[in-house]
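Lab channel / #folding
Pinned by the channel admin:
"Please post every new chain as: sequence first, then the structure tokens as a reply. Keep commentary short and put observations after the output so the thread stays searchable."

First post following the new format, from NK:
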Amino acid sequence: MLARQIERYAKWVVAIVVIMVLAVLSSIYVLSHERLRWPFQASYEVNAVFSSVDAVAPGLGEPVNVAGVRVGQISGASLQHGQGVLRLSIDPGKLPRLYANARAVLVPNTPLKDMQVDIVPGGAPAPVLRHGGTIPLAQTTVPIDSDDFLKALDTDTRTWFTGLVADLDQGTRGRTRDIAALLRALGPTTGQVHQIAHLLAARRGELARVVHNLGAITQATAVKDRELATLVDTSNATLGALASQDVALRASLARLPGTLSTARRTLGDATTFARALAPTLDALTPTARRSPRTLRDTRALIRGASGLPVDKVRPFIDAVLPLAADIGPASRAIAASTPPLIDATKVLDYFSNEIAYNPGGANQGYLYWLAWFSHNGASVFSTEDAHGAVARGLGLFSCSSLSQPGSPAQLMGLLFGVSPTACSHP
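Reply from TO:
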């Protein structure tokens, strides 16, 4: 009896078990995305003291980041001695340790002031911050709201700043496209300013080297005064010779800018030509390798073409030219007809593949059954009289089926006059 009950309700028990398994899996998936901390999940906690923890809502997954990478979340908040203390739960797999000189910054994550904590982990020689340790108030920073900023200003400055903000709002209203265009236009300028700042930073190092080298030169010239005097005399003679040729030198200098400009343009064009020449030569290498064989074949072609009837080429061209005007409309008509023809060909190809497909085994393809259908159709309409073809068929019934009440026997009796007792034995 118990086995029968189990067999009877087995499918319902299986369905209930499947639903329970799906419910458990769905619950695990939802809870894992709702920041549920599993019992065996490793973490360590540290505290951070802030002067204000406005808009912080622990338990909602507000992140703790290091260099933009999430390493934990804000798990709690409390008030101690009039200061806000946030409890930070850190994943040791992402941030193995914090140091006593670590810094914490409370910043808004979105314009709606969803807060997050950005941490600078610190480093040696400071000691490691243990589980439950605290980052003091001196090493934390909170965002300054606009009302706190205005409170710090005097009355005249606050009035002027408020008017500036109101005028700025009025001046920029409806000018979003212009502001966007301005910011896009400032993009290249910002890039150039970045390059200038980078060059100035590099120039600082170069200037230090120049000063050092100048000191070394000065120190070297101090012990080489005779050689320096000789150098000065020689330089004086050289400059005197140059001064005597000031007219020729002036003419040469006058021609120098044009010469340099021409040389710069020439070198620029030569650079472009050289860049294009290398891939061109690489592409021509196979052609150059085949050139001897091509020339030999061309010689044979020219010899064979010498026997062509060249005098009949001109009449052939004159006869073909009138047909050239019809090529354009014909090609456009063919191009317009090509897409429908391609679609029709695809349909015919699909139909042919479907008809000719034979899956094998006991299940035959359509061509097999099409032959049987043609044979059966010819058999059905094989009889005819003066009025044309007559459809015929064969119905098979057993005597037991005809003798049953409500069976096709009544219909057979009405249509063909067949009695259900025709099968009975005397």
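NK: The radius of gyration is 49 Å.
TO: also worth noting, The chain is about 60% helix and 15% strand.
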